[in-house]
């Protein structure tokens, strides 16, 4: 294996953190490895790598639908190697094996697919974890420590595809589809009067879901529910209207900066 490319989607940095650890590990194994956010994937020539790593955060036991869309648009290949990784707060269904199967349908040979526990970032229902707390930072460290074993097994041909059975796959699809149908209802977003019209949320939204942020941010109906705007708004002015826990806590991985994707409008 000569060259690897790791493409990841992240809302608040966990998957970026894991992707970075994986890239370092592969480089330590003398594999030239590039890493890219999914938002920049169009600028990358996928044909030059012979190992593709694809990472995502688990949403409702499934794959974020922008990641699903990316895989659907991938050009078919003949046996190129790939691996799948995800971050989750607690549990997933068969989202990793689902993504592995989608890649296999495109002609990839998937060496491994697994999920990794990371701190929770969601303000949608239960509230995120406090990244200033040592036990939460320890979760990120544990994530880092699981990488060498995962890479070692994968490269030695002993990688596994987790939860690769019909029940798990169907659970993941059903859960993800229900979540997709509910976006725009339970998981829509509101802007409070604390907004200073700084424009940042519109610049960093991966889905182009925010408009007019220089006058008053408005949301379209294509939110991935990645929590990026919620977590990075300097005024904490973006909230989910329906939650079990009202909290001013926001989660983002120290050192992670979202890409600036467009100019703000207003
Ligand atoms: C909308 C939403 C749904 C989520 N659903 C799940 C879930 O089903 N299972 C789980 O373990 N974690 C779930 N999480 C937590 C995230 O998967 C987890 O915190 C992830 O590491 C965030 O990654 P990121 O920082 O790369 O965006 C959810 C988070 C969000 C925002
Ligand atoms: S990032 Fe926050 S303060 Fe800035 S425009 Fe968006 S909602 Fe308003
Ligand atoms: S509106 Fe916010 S939560 Fe939705 S996709 Fe954009 S950045 Fe993510």
TrEMBL record:
It comes from candidate division WOR-3 bacterium. Residues 186-217, 220-243 form the 4Fe-4S ferredoxin-type domain. Transmembrane segments: none annotated. This is 4Fe-4S ferredoxin. Pfam families: Fer4_9, Flavodoxin_5. Keywords: Iron, Iron-sulfur, Metal-binding. GO terms for biological process: ATP synthesis coupled electron transport. The keyword Membrane does not apply. PROSITE patterns: 4FE4S_FER_1, 4FE4S_FER_2, COMPLEX1_75K_3, FLAVODOXIN_LIKE. InterPro entries: 4Fe4S_Fe-S-bd, 4Fe4S_Fe_S_CS, EFR1-like, Flavodoxin/NO_synth, Flavodoxin_dom, Flavoprotein-like_sf, NADH_UbQ_OxRdtase_75kDa_su_CS. GO terms for molecular function: FMN binding; iron-sulfur cluster binding; metal ion binding; NADH dehydrogenase (ubiquinone) activity.
């Amino acid at each position: 294996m000569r060259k690897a490319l790791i493409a990841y989607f992240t809302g608040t940095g966990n998957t970026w953190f894991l992707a970075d650890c994986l890239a370092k590990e592969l480089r330590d194994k003398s594999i030239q490895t590039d890493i890219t956010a999914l938002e920049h994937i169009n600028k990358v020539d996928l044909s030059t790598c012979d190992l593709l790593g694809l990472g995502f955060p688990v949403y409702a036991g499934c794959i974020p639908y922008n990641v699903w869309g990316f895989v659907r648009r991938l050009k078919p290949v003949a046996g190129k190697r790939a691996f799948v990784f995800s971050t989750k707060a607690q549990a997933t269904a068969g989202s990793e094996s689902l993504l592995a199967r989608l890649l296999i349908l495109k002609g990839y040979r998937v060496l491994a697919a697994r999920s990794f526990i990371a701190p929770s970032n969601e303000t949608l229902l239960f509230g995120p974890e406090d990244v200033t707390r040592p036990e939460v930072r320890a979760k990120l460290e544990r994530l880092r420590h699981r990488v060498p074993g995962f890479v070692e097994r994968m490269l030695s041909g002993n990688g596994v595809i987790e939860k690769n059975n019909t029940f798990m796959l169907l659970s993941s699809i059903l859960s993800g589809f229900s979540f997709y149908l509910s976006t725009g209802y339970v998981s829509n977003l509101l802007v409070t009067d604390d907004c200073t019209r700084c424009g940042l949320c519109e610049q960093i939204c991966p889905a182009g879901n925010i408009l007019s942020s220089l006058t008053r941010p408005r949301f379209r109906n294509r939110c991935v529910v990645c929590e990026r705007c919620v977590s990075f708004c300097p005024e904490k002015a973006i909230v989910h209207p329906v939650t079990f826990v009202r909290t001013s806590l926001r989660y983002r991985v120290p050192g992670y900066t979202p890409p600036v994707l467009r100019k703000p409008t207003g």
